[in-house]
Amino acid sequence: MKTFEYWKKRFDNNDLLDFSRTDEGLLWLKLRSIDRKALLTEFFTFANFRAGERISAEFVWQSMESDAKIGIVLDRFLKVCQKRENAKIDASQETIRANLYKMSHFHWGGGFRNSLDKAIVSRYVKTEDIIPFDRLDAICDGELLDMSRGYLLNSWYNYWSSVLIENLFRRNPGVLPALGKIKNVDFFVHDFPFDLKVTYIPKEYAELTRKQLDFEEPLKILKMFAKKHGIPFSDDASPEQVRYEITERLKDSKSKEASSVLSTVRAILIKTVSAITSDKRALIKWLYENQGDMRFGAENRIFLVLIDLGNPDESWKLKRNVDFISPLVSKWVAHFKRETSNELLTEFSYKSHPYKTYADVIFAVKK
C-alpha cells in the first residue's frame, strides 16, 4: 500500500482520478470521511482497537497494511452511522419541508452569491471616493439590510433543501455516506465517490444553446410585442422582472396575439431545453470549465439539474419537492454500476490545465 501521506497529497492537489480507479484510493477516501475526532474515536471502539493506541486516520491506514479486514469493518461502521443519520433526518424531514415551503421568493438581493463580505467591501468600503458616514449609516438600514436578508434566506434554503436531496441518495441500497462532510465527496454509490451539485441550467449556457439553434431571444420577443401594443413594463428592472411583468399581462389578455406570443416563447424554451438535455456531456464539460475560482474542483460529480418548463424563474422551488425528485434519484442509483463508470469519463480544461473526472447529470424537468 502507498502511504497515507501519498494519498493525502494527491487529494489536496485535486489529483483525484485514481481515487475512483483503484480500491486503495477508494479505501483512503472512506477513511478520510471519518477523519474527525468524534467519528474516529467511535470507530476505534467499533473496530476493537487496543486501548491506548493513538487515535488517528493514519494509524488506521497503517493497520490496514497487515489486516485487510479493517476495510470491511470500516464499511460496516459507515452503514451503522448511515442508519443513525437517516433516522435523524427522517425524524425532522417534515419540519424541514414545512419551513422550506414558507419561502416565497428567491432573490439574492445584490447580484452576488458566494461572499457577502466581499460584496460589502467592494461596494461600500474600498470605493473610489469615500462614502459619507451618514450615507453609510442609512445604507445599513436600507439596501444592505435587503442584501443581508436575501443572502441569509437563500443560503438557508439551499442548505436545508440539499440536506433533503442528499438524504434521497443515501436511502438507496448501495449508497454509503461520507460522514465527515469532506471536500469532494458527499457519498459513495456502489463504491464510487461522488459530490452532489444541485443546480439549474445556467443562463449563459441556455443563451449559448439558443444562439446555436438560431432562435430569437424570448425577452426581445416579449418586449417588442409589449411596445407594439402599448403594454407598460419596467424597462429598467432586471430581465427576470421584465419577463414576469409582460408574461403576466399577456396571460391575463384574451387576445389571440398574446396567446400566440406566449406559445412562441414557450416553444423556444422547450426546444432549447431539449437540445441541452440531449447532449449532457457538453453541459457537464461547460459546468466544470465555468466554475468560479472559489469553488473550483475536479472531483466526480452528479449534477441534479432542476428545470420548470412552465416557469423557469421558479425552478428553485423544485429543490424542496422531494416527492418529485425521489424517483429520479432512485432510478439513477439503481442503474449506476462501477464497472461501466468509464461511460461517465469527462475531460475538461481549467486555466489551461487539463483534468479528467467522472460525472453525470440527472435532469429533473417539470412540464
**Proportion in β-strands:** 5-15%
What is the overall shape?
A: globular
Number of helices: 15
User: What's the helix-strand series?
Assistant: HHHHHHHHHEEEHHHHHEHEE
Radius of gyration: 24 Å
Tell me the strand order in the biggest sheet: 1-2-3-4-6-5
Alpha-carbon distance between the two ends: 51 Å
Return the structural class.
Answer: alpha/beta
Q: Kindly report the average pLDDT value.
A: 92
Helix content: 55-70%
Number of strands: 6
Low-confidence stretches: none
Give a quick account of the main beta sheet: strands, pairing sense, barrel closure.
6 strands, mixed
Describe this structure in words.
With 367 residues, the protein is of the alpha/beta class. The radius of gyration is 24 Å and the shape is globular. A 6-stranded mixed beta sheet has the order 1-2-3-4-6-5. The mean pLDDT is 92. Among the domains are: 4-79, no CATH class; 218-270, no CATH class. Helices cover 55% and strands 11% of the residues. The protein is built from 15 helices and 6 strands.
Compact overview of the structure:
The chain contains 15 helices and 6 strands.
